[in-house]
Structures are given as C-alpha cells and as structure tokens.
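Sequence in, structure out. Go.
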Amino acid sequence: MDGKLRNELEALARKGGARLFGVAGTDRFEGAPTGHHPSDLVEGAASVIAVGVPLPLRVANYRGLFESSEIIAGDFRRRYLQEYFYRTTGYDIINRCLEQISLALCLHLEDCGFPSLYVPPTYGENYLHIQEMVPGLAGPFSLRHAAVRAGLGEFGLNNLVVTREYGSRVRFGGLITPAPLEPTPFLQEKACLGLECKNCLNGCRGEALSLAEEIDFEKVWLDPVSRTDVRGCREKRVPYFCHGSCMAACP
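Output:
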C-alpha cells in the first residue's frame, strides 16, 4: 500500500478546501448494486477516495435570515431562502469546490500512472435535469457509502453521513482509482446519537424519513438504518420550509 502517495493526495485535497479525507479499499464495497461497484466503473480499481467539505454553520441554519428585510417580501422570503440562497450557498458553491478537488486528485493520480475516475456530487446543478426525467433516480456511485467506508462517519437516523467533526453538515465528493493506497480505518465510535437525540426525525415536518424495523443502536452504522422518500421530500420542502432541516438539526 502506498502511504506516500496517499499523503500527497490528502495534502492536495486539504489545500483545495477539503476538511475530511479518507481512503477505502474496494473490498469494502461488497454488495453494491450491479454496475455500481467501484470495479464496475474502473478496471483494476483498488481504492476509493472520499473527501468532505462542511457547510458553514450560518449557511446550514439559514431559516432566520432576512426576517426584517424591506427588500425580500415575507410571502416570498421562504422561497427565496430555500430555492436560491440555500441552493446556491449550501449546494452549488460547495459542489463546485468538491468537483475542483476531485479533478485535482484525479489528474495527480493520472500523472503518477493511475488513470482514475471522479464522480460528480449528487444533486448538483445538472442533476436536477436528470431528476426531472427520472424522479428519485440515485446517483451513479454512492458518495455517502464511500465516505462511510473510508472511515469519515457513519449513516445516521437522517439517512445522511454523520461525522464526529461536523455532524451531518458535510457534503462529499470522491473518486475511484487503481492506485493501491493505504486505507483509513472505519469509524470506531458512534457519531449519531440515535434515539437519545431524534432531532432529525422530529425536525422532518414532511415525514419523509422512515426507520428500519430492527436497528442495533450500539453498532457503528455502515449501511443506512433509515429510508428517505426523495419525491415526498422535494414536494413538501417548499410548503413546510424544511429543506435541509434534517442536516441543520443534527447536533
């Protein structure tokens, strides 16, 4: 395993704005859907790199902004905050950062003789057009699973990745490479507080989250323990003003 190259890649990622960096061997992706395992996408795949960029606190907690504004009318404020302000500051800008980091890592690996493939963050600007054609379509490669299997966090009750450093207030990017990089260990201690908290479940006004019937609350969750009704979430977030509440509620 190449620890030196991994260190170079981590330094490059952090220079580009990443706050989290991890590596998983492709053996950690057993059970991935057919056609979506790392080896299905990159011949000779050996490693998956996951990087995370957190949302600034005031971006994640955007709902109280402009309450006394004389410019943004009250009846339009919610739509403005969710569909423009949060969409831009909480998704588009961070996704562009993740894309630039992933591209830099991919090119560095290619310079080292390892042609690699980076994956665009799910729900980016162009992904909305795909979702209009196929509502509820999942991303081509699960960046959430990549983050968990690279030891950056665990799945939480909100069906997001919960990290010890930032809770679930993180978006992820990643790439698949034939480079045999030294892997980072799985998360050893739980990050999600589970039923002791339930802030995300209580904060989901659209009731788009449903839990699995049997959950071992002592385990670090390497796979989702809840399901998100993606279509219901999209349809209800405007009238309920709850877009991102499952993330912001996470302590």
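Check: The longest strand covers residues 47-54. The chain has a mean pLDDT of 91.
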